[in-house]
């Protein structure tokens, strides 16, 4: 079942101004977002939308004003997908939902991995940006297989993937934002398997309630560090043994990585844990056929 975002959002006022001479429409939508007091952004959020009718570019920005010790993070979404009206991102997702999801995803990641506090070492970003664009036109990634790319505090989402996605594209977009937002904030270590790093990102997506409907079932995969949803399900199993394990693992990854981390925190080797995980979701053997 599709999970609902954990914060409630209410529109307080809408102000529209039209300048016929320049054929531009400025729409300002102010939203107040009620968030948990332990989250990174505790104050109300102000969303501003500017839509230029003369071209396909649009920008959404969510401002999270500081309240006490709460950090300031500005969320910006830039839609460079296709011409107006022809983009599934524009018609089925929308820029307001897009920037709101970008904001909520980061808040959830910070809450899950850092107990609501923004990291102060190398990832103390004051701005998070998402750009919706055609990887084919921009010649990014391995078109058309690449879904998104995140470098630093900037997410690029392939609008070609959104355009031709089969299924609930709004649900899929939301899950991608949680995965890519994790890539922004999580710790990485060159000694750690790449599959563990992207597996943590999919774990957060899973924990938030937005797993891809195309994922295989729990218990799938051949290796614990296979990556993405395979590793995400394995980390879910590990976290069920020790609540907060993934957050602890992320904290340790700032300094080093070793498979012995699993032994230290969970009392079993990673290979033993993998066997236990596979057994937990192993399908029962079919009953033998009675002899004639």
From TrEMBL:
It comes from the Eukaryota. It holds the Pfam family BSP. InterPro entries: Uncharacterised_BSP (IPR007541). This is Uncharacterized protein LOC116195208. The lineage of its organism: Eukaryota, Viridiplantae, Streptophyta, Embryophyta, Tracheophyta.
